[in-house]
Amino acid sequence: MEPLRVGMLGLGTVGGGVARLLSGEGERIARRAGRPIQLTTIVVRDPKRPRAIAPPPGTRLTDDPRAVLDNPELDVVVEVAGGIEPARGWMMAALRNGKDVVTANKALLAEHGADLMAEAGRTGRALAFEASVGGGVPVIHALTVALTANRVDALAAILNGTCNSILTEMTESGRSYRDALALAQAQGFAEADPTLDVDGTDTAHKLAILAWLAFDHRIGPASIPRRGIDTLDELDLRFAAELGYAVKLLAWAERREGTVAPRVAPTLVKRGTPLAEIRGPFNAIRIVGDAVGEVVLTGQGAGASPTASAVVGDLIDVATGRARLTTRFLASPPSAVPSRTASAQVVDAAIQDPRRRHYLRFGILDQPGVLGRIALILGQHGISIASVIQHDPGEKLPEDSGEVVVPLVVMTHLARESALERALEQIDRLDCVRAPSLQLPVLD
Amino acid sequence: MEPLRVGMLGLGTVGGGVARLLSGEGERIARRAGRPIQLTTIVVRDPKRPRAIAPPPGTRLTDDPRAVLDNPELDVVVEVAGGIEPARGWMMAALRNGKDVVTANKALLAEHGADLMAEAGRTGRALAFEASVGGGVPVIHALTVALTANRVDALAAILNGTCNSILTEMTESGRSYRDALALAQAQGFAEADPTLDVDGTDTAHKLAILAWLAFDHRIGPASIPRRGIDTLDELDLRFAAELGYAVKLLAWAERREGTVAPRVAPTLVKRGTPLAEIRGPFNAIRIVGDAVGEVVLTGQGAGASPTASAVVGDLIDVATGRARLTTRFLASPPSAVPSRTASAQVVDAAIQDPRRRHYLRFGILDQPGVLGRIALILGQHGISIASVIQHDPGEKLPEDSGEVVVPLVVMTHLARESALERALEQIDRLDCVRAPSLQLPVLD
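Above: the input entities. Below: the structure tokens describing the complete assembly.
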């Protein structure tokens, strides 16, 4: 049978993994795909540079993207170059030239997924992107194929393995954020410049893709409220543990009365629930569907081999013809369909303002009556307290500067964030409190 | 667009869920399927019997299966009647008559999946069965589509929600098996006759299906070694907890040197790992792939609504045309494919005989020197001890009869089961030991 001929843009970590998998397991993959999958051309910046891993025999290295994009002999383009441009232009060109496209590029999909999908719809080609979120965890297939009988009501996910490694280390060894980051860098779980991971940008990109699929609404990643782990104190992980919670960098979005308010934030997650127990560089996605209830998918969210598993899975989907059928559904504009029941209006978290529990940490002067004054203000805003931790003055806060400032931790019952913000503003003005107070949401 | 016309065989729990989902969420489902999905005919034993849930308007109830199987106006047959016959004959007839088939029938697939798949291959129709294993958890899609770039190296799964509910209750409240079963029956998690659940038969059926997909080899469920939870003592759950483990009814199978030895057994699973933390009527499937590493899928493994989510998901897959493409791959006989690297020879667990840790409980007479004699025999068979629990004589064994028999618990280091069996045989003959000793495998 005619092989599926593949050109690849990029030969970094993921590209190397794809090349290895296709050449090392070619026979097995041919069997699953119904025909051989042949990687014929790879575009790299410098074809002459010596490489740790040799490209598979019979593969041509070139620095000319047109050797892939304009090559009439190629059926599919795999884009693993990353970044917005020129990747966007390359993918548009590939689709226009009648090629199916497989990509791992989350930033590009988060920003321009709608345009790319529309182009794929126009040309009748496949745009497959399982590798863009969750590495090898098949969350894109779950949302676009397997769970598609469901209206998704909620998503909560750990989507960044670097952050989860750092948080696990901080929790289990009591290390500071800075020390845990340094360790993650030494172990290869964090990049030299980890900004986009630790500040939540990478997670917001992935959430934008998931929210699009789950709630049928495009939202730019920049408009997702986001807080990273880079401002977390190990103290809060310790207090959370005392209260029976783990702190995770969560992407979440819930459907409430036709609205959805995606957000990224360090969140307290109840120990013993699946997301709380995800350790190290793993990802986990919790999907709540109206029919299926709660489904959780976990696995390695990054790395050459897991991500290559997703890319090659997509190539097999392209080879069998399934991928084009999935793209056809995703590309159909909402206006062309009989119902909009599955879509939701994206709103700001402050507008949706759901009731949930909150973790609060105040830096207070070590004097009697402070808890009473704080509790009073919370009560005035209708917020009741579930539990309180007040430790010995020995446990000083990092922002301490001469005065004896001690931490006071409050776990609230269900409360609206809007009410909480008003209360915190008032509490932070008390003379016995050293602002700013810390507030983290809770997923029960 | 032309609707997809569906006939359904059966209107029990799952069938009712499917009818409700199709009629209640018809517009949303039509959008995902690209065309309306119309349930036109349902075959039931007695169409006149009053029903708690009325069939959707426009649906015809009949007691004549030919009204579905021979009806040229129907595109798909959904089989949710259960049992081997007449379901098998019905599905064969439906495929022969050019209809796609969607089924939730695990017993039938475990026994006759190969024949049905071959027939689907011959007729070019789809045979979709996501609902047969794991309820709403998309494990069939994961193994046949999303993770198909992988060679699966190991499977370990909690596939029976009834057993998991009972084990959770025994662990968390210290109830006996009998009391926990009665409670599960009262709560609706266990049937009046729970035999097929608690003795592991249901789990073996599901494992036969997963092992076929994962290891490309058909194995009859009857030839899978199986042990249920009905012989477990709450004592062992308590000792396991002391050692840091949960006891789960696990289906497992690992690829070792081209062989795979599926088995079903109560197993100690390390606390803090995903499978150990699955509580109540949930299912979880851990798949280890050569590229993706470890992936775990969890969710509700039974119930009208989660199972209907899977059936309707399959109907959408049929409507888009994807399901036929997947069936084409599954139906291709191994001999027709270029490579057999993905398939494995099914062997008896005793032949594969991997090294693993084991939990042992001996009933010993309360006298000095017994531990030493047991340790000596274990050592003679090359089995070393990782930890020992020996409690007060107050903690008598249930099989106690006059003598003071106390439990002695041993956790071994990695050891071969064959060596262990020889050692246990010898230990059980000691005059200070009341046979039989208990042995449970450990998943680390």
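Note for the figure: Confidence is low (pLDDT under 50) at residues 335-342 of chain B.
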